[in-house]
Predict the 3D structure of the following.
Amino acid sequence: MTSPGTILFVTTAIFAMAGGLVTISARRPLRAAIGLLIHIISLAGMFLTLNAQLLAALQLLVYAGAVVVLFVFVIMLIGPASEVRAIEGRFASRTLSLAVTIAIVLAVSTSLAYFDLPWGAAAEDFGTVEGLGMAIYSKALVPFEVISITLLVAIIGSIAIARSRTE
Amino acid sequence: MGVGTYLALASVLFGIGAAGFLTRRNMLIQLMSIELMLNSVNVVLLAFNRVNPANHDGQVFAFFVIAVAAAEAAVGLAILIAYYRIKKTIDTDDASLLKY
């Protein structure tokens, strides 16, 4: 008997891997961005199976709502140049990097797949806005403020870097 | 469905991102591959936090990873636009100004 959580996990896992493969194999960057969107939405669904409701919502807001839209804006800004020519030659280095990555992933994932720990009994407010918000504001208040300054610096830095210097 | 399944899936997703970063020469797709890798780390953090739900440490950490990833995407895309202004392409093979 498969539980609804298992069904949700398997579905989102398949879509997350498919979205990731579309992202790295698409020739057109817009298709890669849509693959990234599929990947992110399915990971948000997977976060629900781990009792992380607030983070699932944040994943949709920040990644699907902001990061992917930023990528699409840049693709539109750059236009046809966003598609680069195919790589010619250098089969040795490309094959080697791919083979090493696949070997490491196979070794790590097959050894981890049977690692098991019992799931703990989650409290009523685990992962909700109240529970995670209390944890952030009581135990991680200073990092939370620092991350807001980091985002502000990133905004100012992006404007300074991407600004046109022709005027 | 144990925690090992989540860890194995996260390592596969990380590998997909790493393979994309290593084999593609399109800077946009390399940035997207970095996002894939950051996302797979979040899966690991949340899975281990679910094993020990007495505190929210893993979820707090994943929250900060999401915030840093957003800042990274903004700065990375700004650098990409500045690079495009100079080179009129986003092929990383042409990023050779400091090479000679």
